[in-house]
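Below is a filled-in request sheet from our internal design queue. Each sheet records the structural input a requester submitted and the sequence that came back. We keep these sheets so that new team members can see what a complete request looks like end to end.

REQUESTER: design group, bay 2
PRIORITY: normal
MODE: inverse folding
CHAIN LENGTH: 673
BACKBONE (tokenized):
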């Protein structure tokens, strides 16, 4: 009866309104690259101090779960994860949108997110104390191997290109080590530049590696960004429900995976999405379709990453150990209000915690109508947007998102530089996901690795610490299985050539990289692109290895290991390239597309590097107009251009007011504003 009373408390008009508004705000924020759930929760925490604790928690939880779900919109419609949790959603969501099934993909993502969120919230409601004890069983070795497992999943998603996926993961791990070491405090890989002492921001890197290549490729052709033939079919709810029901075991499995991964502090939705995606592909009879627009891929990822919300609150509320940065902020809000965290919370503060859990459950259910409505108009808007407005708008959002994280122009500049590097690496078959995952999981892996190394040395049982614990052995076996699966899949497909299961299998028609192998019966020629890339990475690994000299053992052991691994893998790539194997670059592009890309990159680069001197608004407007002209392939009337100039003024002015007057960010004023 008490639980029923708490449920009725969550159904008050105020709590319902907070849940609905929170979900809508969170969805919109999550859909904008860079404007993360952490930022949304952090900005709105002070407003909850005047509320009843349960109501404030409901508002924050609704924003959090809405933002995790909202990341799917950008992942599906513009191939850019709105949040790191949506990385795997791009694998199949964007190919679905390109073939005209974007509305269906959004609806499936909504249904899967709601189901996963409900499972996570129910686990929080009924299983919090026993599941929290699972988190206590994880020590430094388990967290290290869990991070490595997350990285090996990338290899399983790169069938036909496993070696390059592992090299990309090593690059991401090296990027995560830039700045002050997470254990020991050594300064590493900064090149003597103070700007790198704080490291490379994960969200800025994610935006750059995913968004900038998309922006550059959008101007390459006259073709529309997405197909529009099927847009009149609307929500396609009946079809989506049918697909979801047929994939009910996938939904259930992914939701459970997301909940379990969510209770592990630091793991988060990115690992949960990849694990569930890989498991869905292994269990599917249509595994060859994954990466080409398979609905089960979207379902698995979105069910898992939303289940991590409820799962992440389990260690936060029971143990006082936040699972994710938003959990940490919400934990701080609880402590400010004088609420004691721990197992006694479910008895001493039962009215608050159970009202919050029911409110989170209600917010998740409200995500269905709110998400469908937002998704319908988001899809139509993206399709209706002319490319000459879409390109500068996405570029503007990348700058806004990168700057808003720390109010630092250096983050914007790093975003652009990494984006250009990512675009170049794409030409040679290196996908962004391994790099991003390495950067996301790097600190978790290093902290676990170094702590295990120290404990093993102190106890004289170094190998036993790494390889002798039962949970570690289970994770290692799963990682080996993930690494071995691509080779088995390649062996199985030898006599039946088909497109490799890369993360975006539609490259054959939309991307200038060929993923086919050299003919087995013809003469093999040296793959010069892979040879050059391998040599560059060997040199990079050597520089990183040399940088470890003079560091403390704690600060040098992990970067030294990753540098040596990068050198070995890159040398292997060079050997394979000499034999004519691997992904090859396609012939040079048409002059027009190369010229447009170059012009767009020049305008983009000039914008981010001149911004500190001339100001955000002035440079933003000039860059917006310049990109708008570059992206227009057809002749347009003066009236249309005038309308677009007014739109440019509105977009730049709106975001300047939002950032400078609402969020109170320190804007780069320069000479103007």
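RETURNED SEQUENCE:
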């Amino acid at each position: 009866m008490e639980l029923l009373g708490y449920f009725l408390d969550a159904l008050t008009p105020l709590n319902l309104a907070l849940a609905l508004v929170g979900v809508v705000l969170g969805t919109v924020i999550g859909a904008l690259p860079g404007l993360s759930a952490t930022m949304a929760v952090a900005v709105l925490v002070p407003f909850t101090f005047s509320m009843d604790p349960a109501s404030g928690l409901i508002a924050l939880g609704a924003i959090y779960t809405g933002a995790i779900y909202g990341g799917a919109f950008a992942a599906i419609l513009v191939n850019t994860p709105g949040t790191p949790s949506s990385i795997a959603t791009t694998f199949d969501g964007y190919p679905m949108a390109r073939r005209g099934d974007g509305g269906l993909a959004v609806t499936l993502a909504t249904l899967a997110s709601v189901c996963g969120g409900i499972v996570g919230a129910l686990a929080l409601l009924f299983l919090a104390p026993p599941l929290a004890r699972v988190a206590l069983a994880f020590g430094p070795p388990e967290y290290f191997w869990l991070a490595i497992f997350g990285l090996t999943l990338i290899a399983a998603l790169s069938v036909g290109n496993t070696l390059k996926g592992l090299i990309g993961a090593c690059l991401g791990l090296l990027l995560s080590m830039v700045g002050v070491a997470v254990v020991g405090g050594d300064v590493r890989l900064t090149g003597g530049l103070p700007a790198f002492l704080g490291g490379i921001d994960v969200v800025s890197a994610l935006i750059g590696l995913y968004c900038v290549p998309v922006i550059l490729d959008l101007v390459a052709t006259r073709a529309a960004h997405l197909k529009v033939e099927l847009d009149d079919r609307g929500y396609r709810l009946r079809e989506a429900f049918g697909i979801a029901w047929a994939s009910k075991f996938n939904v259930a499995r992914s939701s459970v995976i997301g909940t379990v991964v969510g209770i592990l502090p630091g793991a988060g939705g990115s690992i949960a999405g990849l694990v569930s995606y890989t498991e869905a592909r292994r269990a599917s009879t249509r595994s060859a379709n994954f990466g080409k627009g398979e609905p089960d891929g979207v379902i698995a990822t979105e069910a898992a990453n939303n289940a991590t919300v409820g799962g992440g609150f389990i260690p936060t509320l029971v143990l006082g150990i936040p699972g994710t940065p938003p959990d940490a902020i919400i934990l701080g809000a609880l402590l400010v209000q004088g609420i004691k965290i721990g197992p006694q919370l479910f008895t001493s503060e039962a009215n608050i915690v159970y009202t919050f859990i029911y409110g989170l459950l209600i917010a998740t259910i409200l995500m269905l109508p709110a998400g469908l409505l937002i998704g319908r108009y988001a899809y139509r808007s993206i399709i209706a947007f002319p490319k000459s407005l879409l390109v500068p708008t996405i570029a503007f959002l990348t700058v806004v998102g990168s700057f808003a994280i720390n109010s630092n122009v250096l983050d914007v500049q790093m975003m652009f530089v990494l984006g250009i590097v990512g675009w170049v690496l794409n030409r040679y078959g290196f996908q962004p996901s391994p790099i991003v995952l390495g950067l996301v999981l790097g600190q978790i892996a290093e902290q676990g690795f170094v702590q295990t190394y120290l404990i093993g040395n102190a106890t004289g049982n170094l190998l036993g610490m790494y390889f002798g614990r039962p949970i570690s052995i289970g994770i290692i076996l799963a990682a080996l299985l993930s690494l071995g699966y691509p080779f088995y899949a390649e062996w199985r497909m030898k006599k039946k050539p088909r497109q490799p299961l890369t993360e975006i299998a539609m490259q054959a028609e939309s991307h200038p990289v060929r993923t086919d192998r050299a003919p087995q019966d013809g003469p093999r020629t040296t793959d010069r692109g892979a040879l050059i890339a391998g040599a560059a990475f060997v040199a990079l690994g050597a520089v990183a290895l040399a940088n470890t000299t003079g560091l403390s053992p704690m600060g040098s052991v992990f970067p030294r290991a990753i540098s040596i691994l990068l050198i070995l893998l890159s040398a292997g790539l060079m050997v394979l390239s000499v034999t004519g194997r691997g992904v090859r670059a396609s012939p040079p592009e048409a002059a027009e597309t190369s010229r447009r890309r170059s012009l767009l990159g020049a305008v983009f680069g000039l914008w981010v590097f001149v911004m500190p001197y001339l100001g955000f608004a002035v440079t933003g407007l000039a860059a917006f107009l310049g990109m708008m002209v570059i992206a227009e392939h057809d002749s347009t009337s003066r009236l249309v251009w005038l309308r677009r100039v007014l739109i440019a003024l509105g977009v730049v002015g709106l975001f300047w007011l939002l950032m400078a007057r609402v969020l109170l960010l320190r804007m780069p004023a320069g000479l103007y504003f």
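SHEET NOTES:
- DSSP finds 28 helices and four strands in the chain.
- Strands lie at 179-180, 187-188, 513-514, 584-585.
FILED BY: M.R.
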